[in-house]
Amino acid sequence: MLIDSHCHLDFPDFAGELDAVVSRARAADIARIVTISTRVKRHADVLGIAEGFADVYCSVGTHPHYAHDERDITVEALIDRTHHPKVVAIGEAGLDYHYQRSPRAAQEQGLRNHIAAARATGLPLVIHSREADEDMARILEEETGRGAFPAVLHCFTGGRDLARRAIALGLFVSFTGIVTFKKSNELRAIAQSLPAERILLETDAPYLAPGRYRGQRNEPAYVVETAKVMAEARDVSLDAIARQTSENFFRLFRKVRPARTSSDLERMRHGGEFHDSRVRLLRRCSAARTRLGRL
After folding, report:
1. Please, which pLDDT band fits residue 265 given cuts at 50, 70 and 90?
2. Cα torsion angle, 177, 179, 180, 182, sign
3. What number does CATH give the domain 2-259?
């Protein structure tokens, strides 16, 4: 059993084939998928996907690229959206100094607002950090001083110092297909050095396809390839890395119901298929009622 703790199923890359993508993930023994919000004002899209599949959950938040467009999103607005049973995390929010599509001040304020929401709800904050190690570490340390909050540094590509400081604060660190790339020796060394109980796996699909899929559109089923490289880097079996990262996921994402045994997983697969079909039927019925109401 593996988990894809971070992907973007609402992106146009998956349009028209979500059923097939989720089916392939289930066939690859991916027990849970979290599709991540990038804009609160489009949250209905990710929430609708999470509602449509039994084993898919979502977050709520604003990506740093859009921090300037969503300055009006308050901490309270984030918290209000977490009451839905399928909303299991805050974010992704953070700092991106590579593209800098939002002013740094807007990114920092957005990050601090999301931290406040994570602290208030107890839901994990999904953190985006790119080429911003020192500012990120500073903000995380300042905010932890105001009160602890659960969080994960997603798609980790930072340096050893950021990883060390994040772990010292009790955060988790998540790795994508980047760790499988030939030139990612330093990243693999960081992954090898971290405490086993603090690592997660993700795809960040549709981006960053791992290993033999590099250059193609990524999808949740491919997290298996990242797990294989992580197992090799840490000198453990694939089963061991799958078990450890899944346990870590359920410790952090406490709102997600665990699938604890192989028989549970089998029931989830069949139950998930029934749930998915039922949701689609209800949507068709609702659409039909809407059309009749217009006549």
Report:
1. low
2. positive
3. 3.20.20.140
